[in-house]
Amino acid sequence: MRIRTRKNLPKKNILITILYLIPLIGFGTYAGFALYIIDDIASFTLELDPPDTNYFTPLSQILDNQSYLEQTAHNYDLQLEKYHIPTNISVDVSFYNDNYTEVEEWHGTDNGALQLGYTLASQCFRYKAAVNTADLDEIANATRMVKKCVSGFSNMLAAPNGGIGPEYPGTPARFVSAPENKKYHEWLFDQDSENPNSRHFNGTGKYHNWRVRLHTSRDELAGYYLGFASVLKFIDPTVNEDSRWCVERIKLLTEQMIEGFRKTNWLVLGGNGEPTGSDLNPIFEGSPWQITLLRIGATALPEKYESLYNYAAAKMLSMNSLGKSDRANTAYDTYALAFSMDVMFSLIILEDNPQLQLHYIKNFERGFYDYLRYHRNAYFNVIHLAFMTLVPDSRLFEKQEYNDEMIKWDILDQLWRFNTSGWGNGIRNYNLTVRPNSTRATSLNPEIAKMEINLNRAKWQDFFENNIYGTLFAWLGDLINFNDVQYLLPLTVSEMGVHHFEWEHSKFFGKGGDNKPEDNGLKQVIPNSYLVIYWMGKAFDIF
Fold first, then answer.
1. Residue 97 pLDDT
2. If DSSP codes are grouped into helix, strand and coil, which group holds residue 279?
3. What is the largest CA-CA distance in the chain?
4. pLDDT tens digits for 339-382?
5. How many Å apart are CA 127 and CA 232, to the nearest integer?
6. Residue 513: which region, alpha, beta or left (left: phi > 0; alpha: psi -120 to 50)?
7. Rounded Cα–Cα distance for residues 375 and 368 (Å)
8. Do 203 and 197 form a contact (C-beta atoms < 8 A)?
9. What is the pLDDT of residues 226-273, one digit of tens each?
10. Lower CB count within 10 Å: N or C terminus of the chain?
11. 200-202: strand order across its sheet
12. In this structure, is the dihedral angle defined by the CA atoms of residues 330, 336, 342 and 344, taken in order, positive or negative?
């Protein structure tokens, strides 16, 4: 029998270990460099200077004329109710002519639930502002609008699932329409038999003649969360029967959503029962989607969901880092910043444990808002100031070079610009003839008009195209469009074209304005971008 020597065994084991580690090290190096590229592009947001207040509207001018801001809010509220919510879901419209009295088209949208969530939140803030000033007429007006929006969300859950309540668990919709409302939403009923829209289905049960748009994503869920949380936080069910109905209905819808997601293991399903790619389970520590819905549930039905909320938060360790976000979204998928903001706002305003609420706010401020502070986004800024009303000492979160009084001025300046830039009568797609300074190049702010760009993107684009190793990372171009020009200064309301700019697109991209041939001033968008910010400021007594 041959006896094998073991003297070379350690060397062999080392060699085998090295061979195993080579691909791991190689992949780790490759992935690490890809992440470095993304982080390098996103680091732009950490290098921004505070906004130059020399180009703000003088604060005294705004404060001495705040009635203009209030009147604009009331004008937009009237437009919203009269034109933009014909079937209790918010939509953009186009008019026949510049009399702006007769709607020619109610536009289709892939974001019905998100838009409705912003509308509902704005009206809940409006309600709270009216309560603060004991304005009974405004309480009635806001309550009427809140009820319309809650009815819209009722339809969003009823039509695809066959009814309302936990006995009808299922998927929330992006958009729905009853057959008698086809004239408002023909796009939802027009179906190409050869190439049918994969997101459009008939309703369920007694709603079988309805049309629903599904393949619901997390951005739409942000609308549900924001709207539901705002009703539970701000609407007093004891005021009258309508306010009581709104609160009780939101509780029922919350229960329906939670039970539906528990049934699917927190997956969002499409019209054929297939996963849509939206998973509410926390893949990484700090994911807010499941926890926030459970927090809404704990507020709506504490006896049923409070223990589940506490257990899930502790089990998933979400409380450790919940409230933080990924600054990479400042470089691509920038709309995700606002959706995350919606969710965190919903969670934080409903949290009834002061210590946990403060912990969430700390994470939000240091791991999210800090790299958005200088973006001049009035929505992000007003949420920050709202949270500052909830903490014992807001000075802990202030930056002296851009303190909270300056941030308040920043918000007011953006709101003021709706009037001074030509949108006082409606947020419409006017071209440069009507809004002569409504692009980056024509801005009255000479620093914006310089159109200086961030060169980081061009640097990496050159690396992909001309470096032998760069081709290995060229796929990042599918994730981040390196051809998109990122400017050094964000657009203000004055230079923006019509869109929903509290969440659509980063203001560091684009040349602004509405200057395509079809831009005739007859399209009018939902005024959420003004109303959410203005009424939130009033609800939290910020201005």
1. 95
2. strand
3. 105
4. 899 999 999 999 999 999 999 999 999 989 999 999 999 999 99
5. 12
6. left
7. 12
8. no
9. 999 999 999 999 999 999 999 999 999 999 999 999 999 999 988 888
10. N
11. 175-177, 211-213, 200-202
12. negative
The first and second tokens of residue 245, run together, are: 């109905």
CB of 87 closer than 8 Å to CB of 177: yes
- Going from the C-alpha of 243 to that of each of 81, 140, 150, 234, 512, the distances in angstroms are 18, 9, 11, 10, 41
Residue entry with tokens 């939140």: 121
3-state secondary structure of 531: helix
What's 372's DSSP letter?
A: T
Which run of H or of E encompasses 275?
A: strand 275-279
pLDDT in tens, 5-43: 566 667 777 778 887 778 878 778 878 887 888 888 888
Tell me the helices (H) and strands (E) count for the chain, helix number first.
Answer: 19, 8
What's the rounded Cα separation, in Å, for the pair 101 and 104?
10
The pTM (predicted TM-score) of the whole model is 0.93
Token reading at 197: 């829209």
Residue 33 is which amino acid?
F
Query: Secondary structure of 244-266 in the HEC alphabet?
Result: HHHHHHHHHHHHHHHHHHHHCCC
Tell me, letter by letter, the H, E, C secondary structure of 268-335.
EECCCCCEEEEECCCCCCCCCHHHHHHHHHHHHCHHHHHHHHHHHHHHCCHHHHECECCHHHHCCCCH
Band of the pLDDT at 279, cuts 50, 70, 90?
confident
CA pair distance 105, 452, nearest whole angstrom: 38
What does the pLDDT read at residue 319? 59
115, two tokens: 């838009």
Asked if residues 331 and 316 have their Cβ atoms less than 8 Å apart, the reply is no
The strand pair at 103-106 and 93-95 is best described as: antiparallel
Q: Which residues pair with 275 in a beta bridge?
A: 269
What pLDDT score does 317 carry? 58
C-alpha 142/C-alpha 125 separation (Å) is 9
395, 358 in Cβ contact below 8 A?
no
**DSSP bridge pairs for 279:** 267
Residue 370, both tokens: 């800090």
Rounded CA gap, 469 and 295, in Å? 47
Enclosing H/E stretch for 335: helix 335-350
- Amino acid letter, 115: Q
Mean pLDDT of 156-171: 95
Torsion sign, CA atoms 143, 145, 146, 151 = positive
Distance CA 525, CA 93 (A): 6
Q: What confidence tier does 318 reach under pLDDT thresholds 50, 70, 90?
A: low
| Token couple for 506 | 């980063």
**Residue in the structure block whose two tokens are 């009427």:** 144
Is the separation of the CB atoms in 121 and 80 below 8 Å?
no
CB atoms within 10 A of CB 462: 12
Name residue 315's amino acid.
K
